[in-house]
Amino acid sequence: MSHEDRNPAANPEPVEDVQGDARWMSQHNRFVQECKDAEPDVLFVGDSMVQLMQQQEVWKELFSPLHVLNFGIAGDTTCNVLWRLQNGELHNIKPKVVVVWVGTTNYQHTAEQVSGGVMEIVQLLINQIPHTKIILLGLLPRGERQNPLREKNAKVNDLLRASASRLSSVQLLDLSSGFTHSDGTISSRDMFDYLHLTSAGYRKVARPLHDLLLQILEETPDEKQTTLP
Fold it and tell me: Which coarse location class applies to the principal site listed for this UniProt protein (predicted)?
C-alpha cells in the first residue's frame, strides 16, 4: 500500500503535547511500568470510555476480581492506541482477553477508516499475543437525538461486525441499541453529556461484558498449559 493509500486511522502516532504538561506520555509510561509489575488476565485498552469505567463502583464489583489492567486515555483515537501498544504496553504481559473500545473520537476519519483502524489494533494484538481472545466493544450512539456522528458510529459497528466474523479469536459486543429510546433519544440518566456514561450507563455495558468475559475465561486454558512442549 502506498503512502497515499494508507488508512490515516491506522497510522500509529502519539498525542501532540499542545498543553505542555506531558500528561499523555506520563500515562503511557505508567502503563508500560504496570506491564512489568502485573500479570493480568484481562486488559482493557481505549479512550475515555475505558478510562472512566475504572472509576465506577461496577468496575470494583465485576472487573477488579478478574485481574485486570485498564489502559484507557481520554481523547485517544485508534492512531494513539496503536502507538501505545507498539511502544511497550504489551511488553511482558499475556492477557487471556483484551477488551478494545476506541473510535468515537476519530472525528476526522470516515466510518471505513475508523473500522480499519480498529482492525489494525486487532491485527497487532493477534501478531504479538496470538493466544489472546479479543472483545471489540461497539461504539455507542452519541448526541441526544439522531445526528451524523451517531450514524457514523453505527456504520463503524456494522463494518466491525463483518470483520470480526472472519476471525475466530475476535467477538464484537454491540450494546448500542440499549441506549436509544423508541423516539431515538438518549437519556441523560445513561449519558450525562450524551456521550460519556453515567453509573447507570456503565452498568448497562458492564453486565453483558462481564458475562462474556467469564465465558471466555472459563474456556481459555492457562498459559502454562498452552506453552507446554
Answer: cytoplasm
Give the percent of the chain with pLDDT over 70. Answer: 94
Residues 74-121: tens digit of each pLDDT: 999 999 999 999 999 999 999 999 999 999 999 999 999 999 999 999
User: Is 181 one of the catalytic residues?
Assistant: no
What mean pLDDT is reported for the chain? 94
Q: Is 48 a catalytic residue?
A: yes
DSSP code per residue over 105-124: T-TTS-HHHHHHHHHHHHHH
Catalytic residue among 67, 131, 196, 210: 196
| Eight-class DSSP state of 177 | G
3-state percent helix, strand, coil for the chain, nearest multiple of 5:
50, 10, 40
Check if 3 is active-site.
Answer: no
CATH number of the structural domain spanning residue 93: 3.40.50.1110
Predicted TM-score (pTM) of this structure = 0.94
Amino acid sitting at position 26: S
Kindly state whether residue 162 falls inside one of the protein's structural domains: yes
